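Supplementary Methods, section 5.1.

A reviewer requested that the exact input to the structure prediction be made available. We therefore reproduce it here, unchanged from the version used in the analyses.
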Amino acid sequence: MVTISIVASGSRGDVQPYVALGNGLKVAGYNVRLLASDDFEQLVTDAGLAFASTGESVEAILQSDEWRKVTESGNFLKILAKMQAEMKHRAVGMAGQLPALLEGSDFIVAGMAGMGGVYSYAEHFNIPVLQAYVFPFTPTQAFHSPLVPRLPFGSVLNRLSFHVTRQMFWQNTKIMDNLLRRALHMRNRGFWGPFKSLNDKHIPALYGYSPHVLPRPNDWADNHLVMGYWFLDAAADWAPPSDLMDFLDAGEPPVYIGFGSMGNRNPQEAGQIALNALERSGQRGILATGWGGLSAANLPKHVHLISSIPHTWLFPRMAAVVHHGGAGTTAAGLRAGVPSIIVPFMGDQPFWGKRVADLGVGPTPIPRKKLTGARLGEAITEAITNTAMRRKASDLGEKLRAEDGVGEAVRFIDHCIKQSIPLHSQAAALDR
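The structure derived from this sequence is encoded token-by-token as follows.
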């Protein structure tokens, strides 16, 4: 049986789409191993996949006071510097354990995590690789990179912004890649990292988001494909807590408010903002504590507190959803067919927040640093009362529910493997 290794990194919203993809490949008859941090072992094994730990807990890192301070600052350069420090801290250990984690792979799927030695391992052992991302990473003139601050880019600068993003990630991961290549007696890569090599070898890239949300650019290579979202639905035997069901049954659909993996140095303040916004808008609410970004005590009867519930089950039962705008959470909100109110903290979140507003399926995003009860209350009221917005959200949700992003990606990968399409050159890569 062919063994496919999928390498994922980041928070749950980053990792879960790869679990969904892995589950689809497993159903198609492949042996699937997923590499991720310790936080996601149960998520991976519950999907019936083999789990391989890449080490430290992402949750522990993101909940540290240092990370919360950097995240709340919204300062892109500070966030980048902190990421670089974390990667340097992990480089030696990760470079040493990666060969054992990938041993026995017949095929490797990786996104951002591939830069930290994965592509080099595949190159050395002639293992076919495939790029897979949940946000745009291929340079294009159509829009700017989701991972850079919003600026008045033109078409030329749009493309440049992707090259800048790629370099930022490569500079953060090249120490790990260099260590692994040295151990495998390979020359270090040059300035361009793995990207020119991937392009020269025509390595495909699959994107796990919907073309209804962000159309595929015309200037991408033919093998860079937007497949549709990779959703992981709740297990068939999963049942919601009885107190949550009692709350949902007791009144009109509530508004969900939660910030997922985003932390706050003062989660109580975030909780009070949420409560104030619900009171101002006259709505019932569900507050999700997530990874410590929000907390509240002495809740009124019209507000219910949860820790974590599958979004694919919960969001369709909401009147609107308020969240940080991570790619995975945004996908779940849009698929539910209800308006989304984005409160971006960092990374690609402002990009998805603007996209939601541009599609007319949610109000203008509110940056976390500017979040107040009054602003959030106004946004909730708009999401509840704006009939055109609600209709557009419903229509988009219907289109997303009709897609089969996992199935499309699995069929592509299956075809490549069975037809022996040469995804990876047999020749040694040039020193880049």
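The chain has two domains: 3-229+403-418, 242-401. These observations are discussed further in the main text.
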